[in-house]
Design goal:
With about 300 residues, the protein is α/β, with parallel strands linked by helices. It contains ten helices and 13 strands. The chain has a six-stranded mixed β-sheet, with helices on both faces. Strands 11-12-10-13 form a four-stranded antiparallel β-sheet, with helices on one face. The protein has a three-stranded antiparallel β-sheet with strand order 2-1-4, with helices on one face. The chain starts with a strand and ends with a helix. About 35% of the residues are buried.
Length: about 300
């Protein structure tokens, strides 16, 4: 649906995007991740044609694509109520259907039917975000871009907004979700891109990204009783490269290069049995999305 190639952008000689590549298929929910100032908002503004690019390509499958955009801090007219504001959006966008019916529809989608009777100046932050999402949806866009839609919201407000995004995803909407809240991305995104220094060095499904950074097989072992003998036995497993003792008392044993999960797991279990070591839990060590994100943005995993 969207293919971005070698996108570059500078402001007064300061390069923000250094050749960014991104791809979205129809129906993707794309988690766009990166620290502040790394070029996320610049990328989204270029996609929306709000600002111009210096170099590169932004190609849509459908040249008549409609985009709905919720900026991080939507500017709303506080003197209007929700109905008035959305009717105004419909008129400004020259919506070609029944504006009254569409306003009612997007309010229903965002759970704002009752709240829309109130003046916007009296809205909570969560209500502002929901009205902003309703405005972004108004023209039945092919692509919805949401920039930090849950930032500064309390847990209840976050849950409400994420539920809306989840429902949109279930209907097949194509969404770019820009957020610092990785748990939100894991809940709804089927694809992730991590931006660093103006490029996206890591892109793919969450499972693909986790597999990419798995490295050597590692197993966590939590013992009922951590004796020196148990630690020594586990550190001398035939297929092991090394072992670490965590601050919480567990032991992580790392396999040598090329050793399969199955073979290493069997060897660990045999070692425990042969040395009469009673484990409380045995599990594979996996990098979380948060650990990968921190590693990529810091440059440690690139």
């Amino acid at each position: 649906m969207l293919q971005i190639k070698n996108l570059k952008k500078s402001y007064k000689g300061f390069a923000v995007l250094h050749g960014l590549n991104m791809s979205l298929e129809k129906g993707d929910v794309y988690g766009f991740l990166g620290p502040n100032g790394c070029g996320k908002t610049t990328t989204m503004n270029i996609i929306c044609d709000i600002i111009t690019k210096d170099e590169g390509e932004v190609n849509f499958e459908n040249k008549e694509v409609k985009i709905g955009y919720l900026p991080e801090t939507p500017a709303l007219y506080g003197y209007m109520n929700g109905y008035e504001y959305l009717d105004f959006i419909g008129a400004c966008s020259e919506y070609d259907g029944d504006i009254t019916a569409r306003t009612a529809e997007v309010l229903e989608i965002t759970g704002m039917t009752e709240g829309a009777k109130r003046r916007i100046k009296g809205y909570s932050r969560g209500m502002n975000q929901r009205i902003g999402i309703a405005a972004a949806l108004y023209g039945k866009p092919d692509l919805i871009i949401l920039d930090e839609p849950t930032s500064a919201l309390d847990p209840e407000g976050r849950a409400e907004v994420m539920e809306i995004i989840k429902k949109l995803a279930e209907t097949g909407s194509t969404i770019i979700l820009c957020t610092h809240i990785l748990s939100d991305v894991e809940r709804v995104a089927n694809k992730v891109g991590i931006i660093r220094n103006g490029v996206i060095p890591v892109e793919g499904s969450i499972e693909e990204i986790k597999r990419r950074f798995e490295g050597n097989v590692a197993i966590n072992i939590r013992l009922l009783e951590q004796t020196p003998e148990a630690v020594t036995a586990l550190s001398k497993i035939e297929l092991a490269e090394k072992s670490d003792i965590s601050m919480t008392g567990g032991i992580t044993v790392y396999a040598k290069d090329g050793v399969s999960e199955k073979d290493f797991y069997n060897k660990v279990i045999m070692t425990l049995a042969e040395n009469n070591i009673l484990p409380e839990a045995v599990s594979f060590k996996r990098l979380s999305l948060e650990e990968i994100y921190i590693g990529v943005t810091s440059g440690r995993l690139i």
